[in-house]
Amino acid sequence: MKVQSVAMAILAASACDEEHDPGCMGTAAPFVAKLSCPWKVTSDDIILNNPVIRQSNPGRDCEYTKNGKLHLNTCEQCGKSHVPCENTFTACTGCCQSGNDIALREHDCNEVKDYFRWKNECPLKLMEAGLEEEPDTSATLHAVIKNHTAAKVLAKGNLDTSCKVEVDEFKCPKIPAIVEFDCMQCNIGSADLMAKCCNECVRFSTSETLANVSMIEPFVVCNGCQTETIKIDWKGTITHQPWIHAGKYDDYSRKSQEDRLDKWVEKKICNKLVKDTCEDPPRKSGRFLREAVSTTTTTTREVLAEQCRRLEELNNSATLISSASTTPGPAKALKGNVSNSSDGSSGGTSGHSSGSAAVSAVSVLMAAVIVGTVVLV
User: Is the pTM of this model over 0.70?
Assistant: First the structure.
């Protein structure tokens, strides 16, 4: 931001002789005060995350009545492949006999919404301009899509020659994103300058510049335009005066745009995903945690970030536990606790080393930390 004050007085003596002509008035340049702030969109990249959204149906491809233990083993492997912190969502349909061991029996739309809100916040790059300047409509935006690889997700899980579970990947028609247009930095003492920035944000939301980025579905937030006052910083003292345009830009608040994003995700993504085939799903244990996470979007982002941080710590702990498990006594005890869920008939799941058992134990703990927010009620 710049605040420039220019005061000039230039007498045109050659055109007027004030001494001999009392009616003559010398000409002078006007006093000029200028304010400027970054409000013009400039060419930039918008970086977005494209998650892996997959779903499988062990209940159909590996029926419990025909392949009991293979069915349970497949459901377990599928459940562990749901890792939102690694950009991977996997639903395991038809795992009716697996109870609460399955992280996700059908996709939780609230979690998908939370992901896009958290991962696809895209602040625009703005350039400084004054009140008298006009927006640059020739600016171009390019979408940079980060396509993620699946985290421990089976492409085709072959447990033996007679039980193969297909995994389908859902392709988003567009990638939703919160596009942030920051006008907070224009609240520097001029109601008109603030309105200029907010008006440009509204214009930009329907501009060709944004429409030309065809692979994304943008939801433009005009940050700062929901203020009720204009801040005036003058000689070390800050005062506030009512903003005459207060309330005009409420439709471009973060809450309004996130509500629009939620409705779009429900219609274009969630309604296209397969529902669970179990008639009477068991009660899930993560209800209260999920509800707590879904209260506010700010809380959601903070909780998700904290969960992913804990996941990283647990991954590091897995390495330490694997190393420590070389000690005979503790390793045997840990192995005994973990390996009860499968034996040699389940496609090579027997004969785990102590280190593998330790990692499995940590995987169970990771599931408790990460997926407790996404199970269905």
Answer: no
